[in-house]
Design brief:
- With 401 residues, the chain is mainly α.
- Helices cover 45% and strands 3% of the residues.
- A hairpin with a 3-residue loop joins strand 4 and strand 5.
């Protein structure tokens, strides 16, 4: 069983086992245009084809046998599903859509069902079939992702639902309260970088902080969660120095949602650090920002960063690192007129595969066929974060790029 699954559930009335991917080739493409004044060429990115790619990948995931779980539910993955649920709404304005797509509604119903059946549904993985600690890791990971997804959805309506309150309560109930990881959550660990490895616990805690800060109705000020929130902030602050640059970018993202998590100087320190990793073409490479000494293996001991199968790490700029970093920089208020941000945005508009709508990214663990379904997992996340970077409306000076 592929370990990318981090599951949620859907309401029986919303089951779509016979759903087929929509076709877009006869549709009129809606294109977002680059508008900065000093560009040497007119670049465009195709919002319609990006939506088509994301929707088709979501439909595939829902119907993939490897994603099936208990009570007619399916997995919610960190690479395909989680980025989808925050990126797809960002395309609505460009596509003149009135509300959530059917695939968004299906995913939200899926997560809602598992939240409502929290005491009945089986965890995604278990100790007997998947190895030691997998039951607890799986349960805690799901709790954070459910809360993140439902809080993100509620943020669009401005009203905190009872299902989201329940998901957040489930999350707090599994927070660690002692030891070096006090304040965090056990996280799914299958030695798969960047989101299911030894260091992924920190990313998960960052997602929890974003969920709390995103939830409407001043949820973060709720009296009953202040001790939990204190432990979470202390964990993130205490362990930030030992993290990879990309995990610190996740911390920066969390700080834009959760007041008091970082000081202004700490935010600027992370921004300056990640900007030094920008490559000559304007993008970033995930291998250069996600790997640390903790990821050393037999090959890297000899000065060659290689994946677990012995193949060399990809060093070129990729859509996941570039999209994620630019999106978070924008969320942190870095101006689009900053030359380095503009170069990153230019990289994104130049590097979309407009025929398929995607931005390419690569596995840090092994070489995969980029045209296969498994080989597209990182590309799924890359496409979602590229869309978020290109449509971000949080900064005061943000414009449709």
């Amino acid at each position: 069983m592929l370990s990318g699954c981090l599951a949620g559930g859907f309401l029986a009335a919303c089951s779509r086992q016979d759903t087929k991917a929509p076709l877009y080739e006869n549709e009129t493409a809606i294109v977002a245009r680059a508008d900065h004044r000093d560009a040497k060429a007119s670049f465009t990115w195709d919002a319609k084809s990006a939506a088509g790619y994301l929707d088709q990948r979501e439909i595939w995931w829902v119907n993939w046998p490897g994603a099936k779980r208990d009570h007619s539910t399916f997995c919610v993955s960190c690479h395909t599903v989680l980025p989808y649920i925050i990126a797809r709404p960002a395309l609505r304005k460009a596509l003149a859509e009135d509300g959530p797509s059917p695939d968004e509604q299906l995913l939200l119903a899926n997560v809602t069902k598992r939240v409502r059946l929290w005491k009945e549904v089986a965890p995604y993985y278990n100790d007997k079939e998947d190895g030691p600690h997998k039951t607890a890791e799986s349960r805690s990971t799901e709790a954070v992702l459910n809360a993140f997804i439902l809080a993100s959805s509620d943020a669009q309506t401005g009203k905190l639902s009872e299902d989201t309150r329940a998901a957040l309560a489930n999350m707090w109930g599994l927070q660690q309260t002692e030891g070096g990881a006090k304040g965090a959550w056990l996280w799914q660990a299958f030695d798969l970088k960047p989101w299911e490895s030894r260091s992924s616990e920190y990313y998960g805690a960052s997602l929890a902080a974003i969920a709390v800060g995103t939830a409407p109705d001043a949820y973060g000020a709720t009296s009953g969660i202040q001790n939990n929130l204190k432990m979470l902030k202390e964990y993130l602050q205490r362990n930030s120095g030992a993290q990879s640059p990309i995990n610190r970018v996740a911390l920066l993202w969390a700080s834009t949602k959760l007041p008091g998590l970082l000081t202004s100087n700490q935010m600027h320190s992370i921004i300056n650090e990640i900007l030094t990793k920008q490559q000559a073409d304007g993008g970033w490479s995930m291998s250069s920002v996600a790997l640390t000494w903790k990821d050393l293996n037999l090959y890297s001991l000899f000065g060659k960063w290689k994946r677990d199968d012995g193949t060399p790490q990809e060093l070129q700029s990729d859509g996941l690192a570039t999209g994620f970093i630019i999106f978070v920089l924008e969320e942190a208020g870095v101006s689009r007129q900053d030359s380095r941000v503009k170069r990153g945005l230019d990289w994104l508009v130049r590097n979309q595969n407009k025929k398929e709508g995607l931005w390419a990214a690569y596995s840090l663990n092994k070489r995969r066929d980029p045209s296969s379904n498994v080989g597209r997992f990182m590309t799924d996340a890359a496409t979602a974060f590229a869309v978020l970077a290109l449509t971000d409306t949080n900064p005061l000076d943000a414009r449709a790029y």
